[in-house]
Amino acid sequence: MKHRIHFTAQDMARTRIAAEPHPLLEVTISARMLQEARGGPAIGAWRREVRGRLDANRAGLLLELNPPRGWAPSFLHPLPSSGDAQEALERARATPRKTVEEQMAFIAERQRHPRWAAHLHDDVRLRRRLFDGLQHVYDQALAPYWPRIRACLEADRALRARDFAAGGLERVLAGLHPGHITWKPPVLEVTGTISRRIDLHLDGRGLLLIPSWFGCRLPLLDPNAEPQPFLTYPAHREAAVAGPGGAPAGGSAAALEALLGRTRAAVLLTIADGTGRTTTEIARRVGISPASASEHTSVLRSAGLVTTARHRNTALHTATPTALALLVS
């Protein structure tokens, strides 16, 4: 279904990209993906792994409240101030009963939901089961992959910052998700997961844009989020999500050269010294050819030290958390 988001000049000034990843939002989107058979090889590999260790009884309530298409309650993914999953989980558990009741009533008017959901606001044990299930799905579906996913989301933000510097917010909006998010000034058209059309007038609040690893197919629009509505879009990511791996202890520049070789160590240091570098920038700063820079970044990427976001004709390389831990002396 095509939704329309109407912007004013004030909305353009207040629209921003989320400064921190939102792990519980990724959990609720991943709950949708677990119930589908789409998403490409990376999602398919992740889905097989997670289904193999997920406890269906513990996860059942959460999955039922997050159908592949349609509305899902936003109290399941409060947006944390720090990007910390445990903080967000605590905020979710502390959701007031009135908020639960209002959100479930809002959804019930628009789509069918499980019968038990009507009692969620006044049944403490039922809510505890739901939030325990949220914790379980986070532990099994997101936590093992979070370092790589977070690196991908941070790389995407670096890429959008370059888009903004080159062409302003309009360029960012036009490049979010071609085919599913279309900028037709002053309206952003979105193909979303909700079957009823939404005409959202931002009324000066602006829009929060949230890059998502699991939101790779359709954007998720929440017109009722506070303090401003949000829209997810797919982060540029690599072909697969690797496990987190161990972060080596920090070492000196000489030790890094001994480990990686002088040129590759210089490439990694160049990438880490900023908010991302293109292949051409790396080549210029290190004093090597673009082909050589591309080869070195490929090896670093395979080792889990670099994430590459590709957009239009640009490849932007950023250091992963593992690489940053390696570089700490």
Task: Note down, in words, how this protein is organized.
The chain has 329 residues and is α/β, with parallel strands linked by helices. Helix content is 48%, strand content 14%. The chain contains 13 helices and eleven strands. The chain has helices at 9-14, 23-34, 40-53, 56-65, 85-93, 97-108, 124-142, 146-174, 253-260, 262-272, 279-286, 290-302, 321-327, and strands at 2-6, 16-17, 181-184, 187-191, 199-201, 208-212, 221-222, 230-234, 277-278, 306-311, 314-319. The strands form three sheets. It has a four-stranded mixed beta sheet with strand order 3-4-1-5. A four-stranded mixed beta sheet has the order 2-6-8-7. Helix 2 (23-34) crosses helix 7, helix 9 (253-260) crosses helix 10 and helix 11 crosses helix 12 (290-302). The longest helix is centred in the middle third of the chain and has 29 residues, at 146-174. The N and C termini lie far apart (52 Å). Residues 238-251 have low confidence and may be disordered.
Please give a handful of descriptors for the protein shown.
329 residues, 48% helix, 4-stranded mixed β-sheet, alpha/beta
Indicate the percent of residues in helices.
40-55%
Q: Taking all residues together, what is the mean pLDDT? A: 84
Rg of Cα set: 21 Å
From the N-terminal CA to the C-terminal CA, the straight-line distance is 52 Å
Secondary structure topology:
Elements: E1 2-6, H1 9-14, E2 16-17, H2 23-34, H3 40-53, H4 56-65, H5 85-93, H6 97-108, H7 124-142, H8 146-174, E3 181-184, E4 187-191, E5 199-201, E6 208-212, E7 221-222, E8 230-234, H9 253-260, H10 262-272, E9 277-278, H11 279-286, H12 290-302, E10 306-311, E11 314-319, H13 321-327
Parallel strand pairs: 1-5, 2-6, 6-8
Antiparallel strand pairs: 1-4, 3-4, 7-8, 9-11, 10-11
Helix pairs in contact: 2-7, 4-7, 9-10, 10-11, 10-12, 11-12
